[in-house]
């Protein structure tokens, strides 16, 4: 349990119907009681859990009323943090909310750090770490599918799978330990075969989870989609067409886009994080050159590349340079400006193992959107946009790395076993795997990792 009582604004700061100040910790009720006068004159300390009361927020030193409010009491351990929690629901104005929060701080609460409420929920055992992370995913979900995955993870879909694998490994570890402690009780062959099978199963289950990582990442973060090509081919026109608004500047001057522009479009449940970049070419202009560097950098991080070519201007070395750079990436080649007389032949591109669309953004934007959407969904495969169901999906790089670690440990354990080496060496590898798996749900996680995870949250969550 946290020693101190934390407070924060739990709603977005701005004008709204209501704004909520949340308190959590041993003094939550006492602090709230000092600043709140119930209409019925009753004491807040006696208020039953899960009840609301109407009254006024009053500064006890001056007697000045700050607002009228409703107070919700949730007593430990049945609250979000598993501590005593009080929510003060005020009118949603920036100044009101700040004043009420300040009053709570003056009366002894400490301003919460980002994610501290959720961190307390984790530390108090109400959520495991994968579930706590799912809270953030849920808040940040961009599409319904992304939301579904987050809800499943919050419900424990991933944690249960990890738990099953760990349990089986613990059984193996216990048996191995026993034979180490009592050497005369050497493991008979049947049991060695049992350990081997256990390890092989665990490897297979770890691999199964790892196989979902690509899809999981796309559903959680969206698909980082970089629009690239040489200058003036129609990259910004493509962004605008897909967004259906004039977001990026479009001119006939090559080198128009300097800085990158990022916008999200929802493609039947997959969030495309579209990034328009500066056209790639050698340039003597410093600003443009920086833009080009940035484009190349982004290209490396892309989950999907949309490479635009201009049908009405001859191909140039930049076009081939980009084709080469994106060779092994998930990519689509768009040959634009087909409304103008063609200046080159498609055969000049050589063999491309990428879908190619010929089109005119100017004359047939609707067709471009349909054809491109179909092609992208085709590239992702059926599984990404069919409902995620309640399968366990690996959505975070952190989880993926831990699983890779676990798999490595398991494979080493297996090799050690098969090489006929002493069982305590097998146990060492096995414990590495268990520890890696425990990092996902938080049993074995280190403090600095925790800090990094919760720093991603907003204050008040
Ligand atoms: N004829 C024709 N012109 C087009 C088409 N698509 C885009 N354009 C024109 O091509 C010019 C360049 O378009 P942009 O979208 O700014 O090209 P860009 O690739 O973003 O260019 P930079 O930002 O300079 O790299 C503009 O004048 C567009 O109107 C098309 O399908 N047909
Ligand atoms: Mg542009």
Structure write-up:
There is one protein chain. The chain is of the alpha/beta class and 461 residues long. It is 46% helix and 17% strand. A 7-stranded mixed beta sheet has the order 3-4-5-6-2-1-7, with helices on one face. It has a 6-stranded mixed beta sheet with strand order 9-10-8-11-12-13, sandwiched between helices. The protein is flat and about 85 Å long. The two termini are 17 Å apart. It binds guanosine-5'-triphosphate and magnesium ion (MG). Guanosine-5'-triphosphate (GTP) binds next to α9.
Strand segment tally: 13
Strand content: 15-25%
The number of domains: 3
SSE succession: EEHEEEEHEHHHHHHEHEEHEHEEHHHHH
**Number of helical runs?**
16
Structural class: alpha/beta
- Let me know the CATH homologous superfamily of the largest domain: P-loop containing nucleotide triphosphate hydrolases
Sketch the major β-sheet: 7 strands, mixed
Low-confidence stretches: none
Mean pLDDT across every amino acid position: 92
Form type: flat
Ligand list:
guanosine-5'-triphosphate, magnesium ion
List the helices and strands and how they pair.
Elements: E1 6-9, E2 16-24, H1 28-35, E3 36-38, E4 51-58, E5 65-74, E6 85-92, H2 94-106, E7 110-111, H3 116-123, H4 129-140, H5 144-155, H6 157-181, H7 189-210, H8 213-221, E8 223-228, H9 235-243, E9 261-267, E10 270-276, H10 286-301, E11 304-310, H11 317-325, E12 331-336, E13 356-358, H12 365-380, H13 382-385, H14 397-418, H15 423-441, H16 447-455
Parallel strand pairs: 1-7, 8-10, 8-11, 11-12, 12-13
Antiparallel strand pairs: 1-2, 2-6, 3-4, 4-5, 5-6, 9-10
Helix pairs in contact: 4-5, 5-8, 6-7, 6-15, 7-14, 14-15
């Amino acid at each position: 349990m946290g020693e101190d009582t934390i407070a924060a604004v739990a709603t977005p700061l701005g004008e709204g119907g209501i704004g909520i100040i949340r308190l959590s910790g041993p003094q939550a009720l006492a602090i709230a009681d000092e600043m709140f006068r119930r209409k019925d004159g009753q004491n807040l300390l006696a208020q039953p859990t899960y009840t609301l009361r109407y009254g006024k927020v009053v500064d006890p030193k001056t007697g000045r009323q700050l607002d009228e409010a409703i107070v919700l009491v949730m007593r430990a351990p049945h609250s979000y943090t598993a501590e005593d929690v009080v929510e003060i629901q005020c009118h949603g104005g920036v100044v009101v909310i700040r004043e009420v929060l300040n009053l709570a701080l003056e009366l002894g609460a400490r301003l919460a750090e980002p994610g501290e409420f959720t961190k307390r929920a984790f530390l108090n055992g109400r959520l495991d770490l994968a579930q706590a992370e799912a809270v953030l995913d849920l808040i940040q979900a961009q599409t319904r599918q992304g939301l579904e995955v987050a809800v499943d993870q919050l419900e424990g879909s991933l944690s249960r799978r990890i738990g099953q694998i760990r349990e089986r490994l613990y059984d193996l570890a216990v048996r191995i330990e026993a034979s180490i402690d009592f050497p005369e009780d050497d493991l008979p062959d049947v049991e060695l075969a049992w350990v081997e099978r256990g390890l092989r199963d665990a490897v297979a289950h770890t691999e199964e989870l790892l196989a979902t990582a690509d899809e999981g990442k796309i559903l959680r973060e969206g698909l980082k989609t970089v629009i690239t090509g040489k200058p003036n081919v129609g990259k910004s026109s493509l962004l605008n067409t897909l967004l259906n608004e004039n977001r990026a500047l479009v001119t006939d001057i090559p080198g128009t886009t300097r800085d990158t522009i990022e916008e999200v479009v929802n493609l039947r449940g997959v969030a495309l994080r579209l990034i328009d970049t500066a056209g790639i070419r050698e340039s003597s202009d410093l600003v443009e050159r920086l833009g080009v560097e940035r484009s190349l950098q982004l290209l490396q991080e892309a989950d999907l590349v949309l490479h635009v070519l201009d049908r009405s201007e001859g191909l140039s070395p930049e076009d081939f340079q980009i084709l080469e750079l994106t060779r092994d990436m998930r990519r689509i080649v768009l040959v634009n400006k087909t409304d103008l007389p063609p200046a080159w032949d498609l055969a000049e591109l050589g063999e491309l193992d990428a879908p190619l669309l010929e089109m005119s953004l100017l004359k047939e934007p609707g067709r471009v959107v349909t054809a491109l959407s179909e092609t992208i969904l085709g590239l992702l495969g059926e599984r990404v946009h069919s409902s995620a169901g309640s399968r366990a999906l690996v959505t975070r790089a952190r989880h993926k790395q831990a699983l890779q670690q676990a798999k490595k440990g398991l494979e080493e354990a297996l090799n050690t076993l098969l090489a006929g080496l002493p069982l305590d060496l097998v146990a060492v590898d096995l414990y590495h795997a268990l520890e890696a798996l425990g990092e996902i749900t938080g049993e074995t996680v280190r403090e600095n990792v925790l800090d990094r995870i919760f720093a991603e949250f907003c204050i008040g969550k």
